[in-house]
Amino acid sequence: MISFRMLWLISICIMSVACSATGTLYNDDLSLSDKYIIIYRPDHFCGILGTPDVIINDHLILKIKNNGYTKVVADPGEYTIEIKFSGIPGANVYKLIQVQKEYRYYLKYKIGCSIYGIINFPTTLQIMKYENALSELAHTHFQPPLIEHVEPVESTQ
């Protein structure tokens, strides 16, 4: 007979697999246009069962899964990037970036967590250098965005 503890462990394993990205692995195709914003979420235990919203300039791009990435074409200009994770206090992040012509931006989203309330790791959305991002992106799976091309915020000047 299966104990409650074993049943609980099996169900957690099944749920964590269901909340991980399953698309194709990252392929750094340098022949593509360089005007991309690439957002990725490396494999991490904290927040494993959730799928936060990725929002660029008030447009929902996708719900990013653990070990997932997406990319959108971004023309030069200003962009507001938000990641909203309902249900986890402190897991929402916001970043304002100025996209330059012919440049790729790699943004890494990592959910923070607390270990017994003693050690706290903050939630971050970091702009990463290509060399650093590539080693983590190699293990992530593509998630198609709802919107493939985003426009910059219009200037109010």
Number of strands: 12
Structural category: mainly beta
Count the helices. How many? 2
Give the integer mean of the pLDDT values.
81
Between the first and last Cα atoms, what is the distance in angstroms? 70 Å
Helix/strand order:
HEEEEEEEEEEHEE
Oligomerization status of the protein chains: single chain
Low-pLDDT segments: 13-18
What overall form do the CA principal axes indicate?
A: globular
The radius of gyration is 17 Å
Overview of this structure, please?
It is a single chain. With 157 residues, the chain is mostly beta strands. The protein contains 2 helices and 12 strands; from the N terminus they run H-E-E-E-E-E-E-E-E-E-E-H-E-E. Strand 2 (53-56) and strand 3 form a beta hairpin. It starts with a helix and ends in a 7-residue tail after the last strand. The relative contact order is 0.25.
